[in-house]
Amino acid sequence: MSGVMSDTTTNTAAPAVNYKIGNEKLVKLTEKAGAKLASLLTRQGRPNGALRVAVIGGGCSGLQYKMDLVDGPANRDIMVMSQEVRVVIDPKSALFVSGSVLDFSDDLQKGGFKVTNPNAEAHCSCGESFAA
Questions:
Q1: Domain chopping of the chain, boundaries
Q2: Which of 41, 114, 116, 126 is the most buried (most CB within 10 A)?
Q3: 126 conformational bin, left if phi > 0, alpha if psi -120 to 50, beta if neither
């Protein structure tokens, strides 16, 4: 996988979490997305938290993105630092999102987080799912 660089183990009071460090070749945040995510994480009391990006089955085209704010990486995750925000992705989802860019728009009608994914072969008309 092109976005993976090294293995890391965190040392905390909880059991050690084994995850890999990736780079922005896997997933990259735009400046707007990074600022919005940093603000959301701070507002939730998780300034050192992360955005979890996953690809799950569903939607009109077969696959859709799932995004959650989490405390940090889980075992086997790949963690990418982008725009000073941590992004964590499970290995299976990483196969589908490699090379993606996550942007944010505050447009009233079509605002929110949008993924530009070079691996998507087809998109549904609502823009919420894709096929790879």
A1: 4-8+16-131
A2: 41
A3: alpha
Question: Using one digit for the tens of pLDDT, what is the confidence trace for 111-127?
Answer: 899 999 998 876 665 55
Residues, the chain, total?
132
For 110, residues 6+ apart whose C-beta sits below 8 A from its C-beta are none
Measured at the alpha carbon of residue 102, what is the angle toward residues 77 and 31, in degrees to the nearest 5? 110
Alpha carbon distance 48, 31 (integer Å): 18
pLDDT at 35 over 60: yes
Could you read off the pLDDT of 15-25 as tens digits, one per residue? 788 999 999 99
Select the CATH number that applies to the domain covering 4-8+16-131 from these four: 2.60.300.12, 2.40.30.10, 1.10.357.10, 2.60.40.1250.
2.60.300.12
Nearest Cα residue to 65 out of 51, 75, 47, 77:
51
Could you give the 3-state DSSP secondary structure of residue 7?
strand
Output the CA–CA distances (angstroms, integers) from residue 10 to 17, 21, 29, 70, 102, in the order listed: 6, 12, 24, 16, 26
